[in-house]
Write a structure and sequence with these properties.
Blueprint: H1 2-12, H2 15-54, E1 59-63, E2 68-69, H3 71-77, E3 82-94, E4 107-113, E5 125-128, E6 135-138, H4 139-145, E7 152-157, E8 160-170, E9 190-195, H5 196-202, E10 208-209, E11 211-216, H6 222-234, E12 239-243, H7 248-253, H8 256-287, H9 289-297, H10 302-343, H11 354-379, H12 384-388, H13 401-414, H14 423-466, H15 468-506, E13 511-515, H16 522-528, E14 532-547, E15 550-559, H17 577-582, E16 588-592, H18 593-599, E17 606-611, E18 614-624, E19 634-637, H19 638-645, E20 652-657, H20 663-674, E21 678-682, H21 684-727, H22 729-737, H23 742-775, H24 792-818, H25 822-827
Parallel strand pairs: 4-9, 6-8, 15-19, 16-18
Antiparallel strand pairs: 1-11, 1-12, 2-10, 3-4, 3-7, 3-11, 5-8, 7-8, 13-20, 13-21, 14-15, 14-17, 14-20, 16-19, 17-18
């Protein structure tokens, strides 16, 4: 216990230095903990959420026409060890009297279920009764509408306005996904669930349904149920069966680069805190050489001295780690919520904390001890004779050339690593060669500081050179943070520009309209709508794709040779659109780059898809680029699409607007023609906005963690300047005695901090630009790469940010130096 008390007393001798060192550990541990907890929680929750949201059924039965007979449901209900429900969806509009909302905001999709309270629907009831005869809405919709159990909803139907009471409110679900506000209803329809007979009666579809979902009671029954459903489909005409397939691994792999960047940004904080610990302890040991020499003379061994200093380091680490874990838990809650929102998880499970706590605890204890290893080793080497020599000339600080050579080699090796992990050897290399770069930079700015700031500038440069190793170590902390934020900010900007370019070139027009189903006269009506220059319709269906023995869904587009040049859905470097589609045979297919990479085959080889005639091979003849369906698609000729997959109706229409018509006016005109028959309308600008929000949110999270690391670097600057001041108290007193004013002292210290920050920011920006160049050759986001480019605005803002951090960090030390009483300074030893 006494040993710990001594350690605490020694730390309290330099309260500000101790506080800043602990603060750096706290930020490092908190950022590490929050990142690990958030990523682990997402990895646990994402597969569960996807399966609960999209794979509640094992099989679906659909029709080749828009509707088929309800008698099929009766047959499926006779299958043993299975639960079946029928669905019928209709688009209509709400009757809202008290709200000043437009017609487009009243759109609602009403889905009739043969049963509402089953494992297949999976509704999580919050209030009311799922077995009632009324409507079911989500808690989000109920909140926006201000609706409670027993309230009535008015719906426009084929038989006039109908009212239905709300019988249940359930937790938000993908099946009843709706907007979060009336304003967002401009972009997405509302959704409610009702008993199947209600929809059949209101919209004149007695005895008709749109689909059936079947779920096996257990895994052992799955094969038998599949066989029974397959036989049922063969016994009926105009229907087909598809297994429900969710590509969880594939979807989650899209986040790998984001999670890796999160890890790097999170661990950057604890890594930078190690520099501060090393710097503080190294200087502390130099300050206490006389103390250690005296202790040696009274019998302390080198080992005992090392244990004493190690105890101080462990105490620092323990305090910082404990506080960091507490703060990190709060950060983890917020970061997990942001990551969940980013990847679309609306119903997350409990957080995964154990790995984060374990690794953060380990990092919080091991990293400080590792950083303190060299200074602690030097404690045992302190010579009593050397310390007791009076007026001993100080050894000139130098740099080890081998350290610089290793740094250059590490930087060079990073050019051969085509992965984001190349950041690690590059940054270690930067840290090793930085003393040389810092010394060169100080030499470059020496004349400028002298001319502009005169005496204060000359003194600042002299002091930077006196403590070159310490100043360069402090500067490199900020340099690494600046380099990372340059990379991430530039990646964000470059990817947004790339996405916008690709989306506009492969969207197929100015508007993509999804109907419940398209009738024969609809295309002519669209073309006749004011503001429409041209329009076409196309088919799309998710087809079962068997790859390496596993089934996955592949969205396939039926494309017309006669219209694809006017409505491009992809880009190809080797073919024109019409030439490629026109050349396709009935057993040939075109893959986009994402699906081609997932497949892993070669052009000329075949993939296998489920068709009306069973599993059939399709020869891959070309690879194209597209952002349709988020860049995961395949294309066949429209006539072959119907022959192979049997879908005889279309749901989507592409529209090109006249130049003088705005996108908003085009939507209003088309909605005025079709009203509630339209399920969704999306333009390329909407998709750019959605993708932009996701990309920007991703990089904002990473940048926030990098900013935390930069704050640690600010702490390092403050700590270094305070140490310098403590070493130069007598010198500052002498300067004051010969006429140097307080303002000149403040300016001198501010310029020291400014010089450290200026070097870090300029060199950090240069290395950040190098990072941009290196990553532009391999960095992908959803298969999209970006071209090398540097934004002057981004660089200017980051430069300004680095300078502000430097000046703020220098303010407290400069004020403290100016306030040192002259009589105390002159007596200071």
């Amino acid at each position: 216990m006494k040993q710990w008390q001594i350690a605490w007393r020694n730390l309290m001798r330099r309260k500000m230095r101790t506080f800043l060192t602990i603060l750096s550990i706290v930020i490092g541990v908190a950022s590490t903990f929050s990142v690990i907890a958030a990523v682990d929680s997402a990895e646990k929750s994402f597969p569960i959420f996807i399966k609960e949201a999209f794979a509640k059924a094992d099989f679906t039965i659909a029709g080749t026409e828009a509707y088929f007979s309800e008698n099929v449901l009766t047959q499926t209900e006779s299958i043993e060890n299975a639960t079946s429900i029928a669905l019928l969806k209709e688009n209509t509009k709400l009757i809202v009297e008290d709200k000043e909302v437009s017609a487009i905001q009243k759109r609602v999709v009403i889905t009739g279920y043969s049963k509402l309270d089953t494992p297949v629907t999976g509704f999580k009831r919050m209030e009311g009764d799922l077995n009632g005869k009324g409507a079911v809405i989500t808690d989000r919709t109920a909140k926006v509408w201000g609706t409670k159990i027993g309230d009535s909803i008015s719906i426009d139907t084929d038989h006039g306005v109908k009212e239905i009471e709300v019988s249940a409110i359930v937790k938000y679900t993908q099946d009843l996904m709706g907007p979060s506000s009336w304003n967002m209803a401009k972009y997405h329809h509302w959704a409610i669930a009702v008993p199947l007979p209600v929809v059949q009666e209101w919209f004149g579809h007695e005895g008709e349904i749109q689909g059936i979902q079947v779920r096996a009671s257990d895994t052992e029954s799955l094969a038998a149920v599949e066989q029974a459903v397959d036989q049922l489909v063969k016994n009926n005409v105009n229907i087909y069966m598809q297994p429900v397939v969710v590509n969880v691994d594939e979807e989650f792999q899209k986040m790998d680069s984001f999670f890796l960047a999160l890890y790097i940004a999170g661990f950057l904080g604890i890594a930078l805190s190690a520099f501060i610990i090393f710097n503080s302890l190294y200087v502390s040991i130099r300050e206490r050489k006389n103390e250690f020499a005296v202790l040696k003379t009274i019998g302390y061994t080198p080992g005992q001295l090392q244990v004493m200093v190690l105890t101080e380091v462990i105490l620092l680490a323990l305090v910082g780690t404990v506080i960091g874990l507490v703060i990190g838990y709060g950060m983890a809650l917020g970061l997990t919520a942001l990551v969940f929102m980013l990847i679309g998880i609306t119903d997350g499970n409990s957080m995964v904390l154990v790995p984060g706590i374990s690794l953060s605890l380990l990092a919080g204890l091991v990293v400080p001890i590792a950083a303190a290893w060299y200074p602690i080793r030097n404690v045992g080497k302190i010579s009593v004779i050397e310390v007791l020599k009076e007026n001993k000339a100080k050894a000139k600080e130098g740099t080890n050339k081998w350290v610089g050579i290793v740094g250059v080699l590490l930087i060079g090796s990073s050019f051969f690593i085509k992965h984001l992990l190349m950041v690690l050897p590059l940054m270690i290399g930067i840290a090793l060669i930085f003393p040389y770069l810092f010394k060169m930079f100080v030499w470059v700015i020496k004349g400028l500081f002298g001319v502009v700031f005169r005496f204060s500038g000359d003194m600042a440069i002299r002091n930077l050179n006196r403590n070159l190793s310490r100043s360069s170590m402090t500067s490199v902390i900020l340099c690494l943070g600046i380099a990372m934020i340059v990379l991430m900010a530039s990646l964000n900007s470059a990817l947004l520009q790339t996405y916008e370019k690709v989306i506009h070139s492969t969207y197929g027009g100015n508007l993509d309209i999804m109907f419940h189903h398209i009738e024969e006269e609809d295309l002519a009506t669209i073309k006749a709508t004011k503001g429409v220059a041209d329009a076409t319709t196309y088919s799309k269906q998710s087809i079962i794709w068997t790859l390496d023995g596993q089934k996955r869904m592949l969205p396939v587009f039926g494309v017309g040779e006669e219209w694809i040049d006017r409505f491009p859905l992809f880009t190809s470097e080797e073919w024109t659109h019409s030439e490629l589609i026109g050349s396709l045979k009935n057993d040939e297919i075109v893959l986009d780059q994402t699906s081609f990479d997932v497949w892993g085959g070669k052009i000329g080889e075949s993939i296998t898809l489920d068709t009306l005639d069973g599993v059939k091979p399709f020869k891959v003849v070309a690879v194209v680029s597209t952002m349709k369906n988020n860049g995961y698609s395949a294309f066949v000729k429209d006539h072959h699409f119907e022959e192979s997959f049997g879908v005889k109706y279309e749901r989507n229409a592409l529209v090109i607007k006249e130049e003088e018509t705005s996108s908003l006016q085009l939507r209003e005109n088309i909605y005025g023609q079709f009203g509630e028959r339209i399920e969704e309308m999306w333009g390329p600008e909407d998709w750019v906005s959605v993708i932009g929000a996701v990309v920007t949110s991703s990089f904002s999270i990473i940048n926030a963690l990098v900013v935390l690391a930069i704050i640690i670097s600010g702490i390092g600057i403050t700590n270094t300047l305070l140490i310098n001041i403590m070493e130069r108290i007598r010198e500052i007193g002498m300067m004051r005695a010969v006429g140097v004013t307080r303002k000149q002292v403040i300016r001198m210290i501010l310029l020291e901090g400014f010089g450290i920050g200026l070097a870090a920011t300029v060199i950090g920006i240069l290395f950040g630009i190098l990072l941009i160049y290196m990553t532009s050759g391999f960095m992908e986001y959803n298969t999209l790469t970006f071209e090398f480019g540097v934004s002057n605005l981004i660089i200017s803002l980051i430069f300004l940010f680095g300078m502000i951090i430097s000046l703020i960090s220098s303010f407290t030390p400069s004020r403290r130096a100016a306030k040192i009483p002259l009589n105390e300074a002159l007596r200071y030893e």
